[in-house]
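User: I'm curious whether this sequence folds into something compact or stays loose and floppy. Could you predict its structure so I can see for myself?
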Amino acid sequence: MSRVKIDLKSAAVPDKLQRARYMITKLTDNPAFPKPQPTLLELKNIINKLDAAYFTALDGKMDHKYALRTVNFEFNQIFDILFNYIQMESKSDRKKIESAGCEVRKSKNDVSIKKARKVKKDESKVISLPNSEARRKKHKGDTSPDYKQMG
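Assistant: Here's the prediction. I'll summarize afterward.
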């Protein structure tokens, strides 16, 4: 099951704007998404609003930065609604999700994720060895210099 990758919230504002504009071009006249919610006009308006707030906030004034945070929050909410719409309309079809200009999350069955988990488990065993050795010495009452340095 493919899922829409939602990672615009953590992106920098210029990156958000670029990706949002790309999504609008991909959604325009896309037969898989005939009536996007929110509408393309609403999406364009929030993009333009965020763009204006970003360039206004570059002067460093606190009230302009606050306005940028407010518009950024509104942008995130509207795009969350869009991502949910894309997920529902696509019925988890990877090609449809990508046709909307969205990225697809990697599934749990992806081989690269399994390899990463295996490596992570192996690393945690190596990292935990000195600590477990120190605990054994402590329980045996060993006060050797090695334990004092590790403790």
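Summary: Residues 124-129 have pLDDT under 50 and may be disordered. The first helix runs from residue 13 to 27.
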